[in-house]
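[Help] Beginner question about ligand-bound structures

Sorry if this is basic. My supervisor gave me a protein sequence and a SMILES string for nicotinamide-adenine-dinucleotide and asked me to "get the holo structure". I don't really know what that means in practice or what format the answer should be in. Inputs are pasted below exactly as I got them.
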Amino acid sequence: MYKVAIVGYRVQGKLHHAPAFAKHPDCKIVAVCDVLEERAREGADTYRVPFYLDVDAMLDKEEIDIVAIPVGEKYRFDLVMKCLQRNKHVFTEKPLVAEAGQYRIVPGDVPKARAMIDEWRKHNVAFGICFGLHGGRNVRWAKQVIRSGEYGPLAVLQARCAIGSWNHIIDMFRFLGGEVAEVFAYADEGWRSKTAAVKFESGAVGTLMMSADLALQYQFKWIGRKGEVQIDDIGGTAWARSNRSYEYRYLNEQGSLASTTYFALFDDHIAEFVDCIKEGRPFDADGWAGLRHMEIDAAIGGSIMTGQPVKVERYLPEYGRTIFSE
Ligand SMILES: NC(=O)c1ccc[n+]([C@@H]2O[C@H](COP(=O)([O-])OP(=O)(O)OC[C@H]3O[C@@H](n4cnc5c(N)ncnc54)[C@H](O)[C@@H]3O)[C@@H](O)[C@H]2O)c1
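Answer (accepted):
No worries, everyone starts somewhere. Holo just means with the ligand present. The predicted complex, written as structure tokens, is below.
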């Protein structure tokens, strides 16, 4: 049984991290920590465990295997470093670092993300990121189809999203399409809308587009040499069409964002994180995925600011999984 502590008990902690860990048959919540007492108490009462206002006091006192850290990006770095240094498995939110907010990641944010990876590499623990789209059933199905190779190598990948999914679609873009070599991006005033042209290392190309005014959470169109695969929205559909066949799949009853489906994303993603620890398997949304997201997002920010194409500088480029790297 893994003993889990929740650090940060507001929206993500209360609604997604804590319930998902509590539901897992191999996990037990043993402590809740928040700097605000009423929040810490609320979590502690819900799970009938002690509460803490200070993470050091909690780590000193409790026996803990996994620390879930759903705090805002301003507080994430110190808490993640501290827990890694104490040899805890860590599950935290995305993005790893964002001094100016999660939708305005710039090259200056990357060194701190690399420092987290350096710390992680010193310890034999898992480091997972809450890129919840990996838990989507439509996404899982589409990944299997792409992995099968039946649709050939990638030619073009397109992705668009509402502002809230920007970090997620960059992570998915790399995961579904492969490592990104270079970007050229534009944004409007205030970066409420962004668009980037992307060149993959494989030679394939793609576009990423975000708008604060888009109602759809996200959509991917993966166009291979022998067919295409499309993923539509959270809890939505996925379909694949090859030169020979056409397959359209509703993977659940809801074609749109439904609360039960949204919650299931986190449950499935966190269950996979725990199962990977238990079975000694690599987790797709691990620290490397967190770092690669930062490097691509920062290159996009750099391109917006300079008006020039920017090469994506990958730290330790041989590390990090995509669906093509098995
Ligand atoms: N993965 C996703 O799909 C997804 C969805 C929504 C939000 N998020 C991200 O999750 C993060 C958390 O979101 P939230 O809405 O819960 O935000 P939040 O930052 O308001 O809540 C975090 C909680 O952590 C507490 N906290 C801060 N520093 C602490 C410390 N040192 N020790 C203990 N507790 C501390 C705060 O008091 C607060 O209660 C945000 O960065 C957000 O962007 C991710």
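A couple of things worth pointing out: Residues 132 and 266 are 6 Å apart (CA to CA). Residues 7-13, 33-36, 39, 55, 70-73, 75, 79, 93-94, 102, 130, 132 surround nicotinamide-adenine-dinucleotide (CB under 6 Å). Feel free to follow up in the thread.
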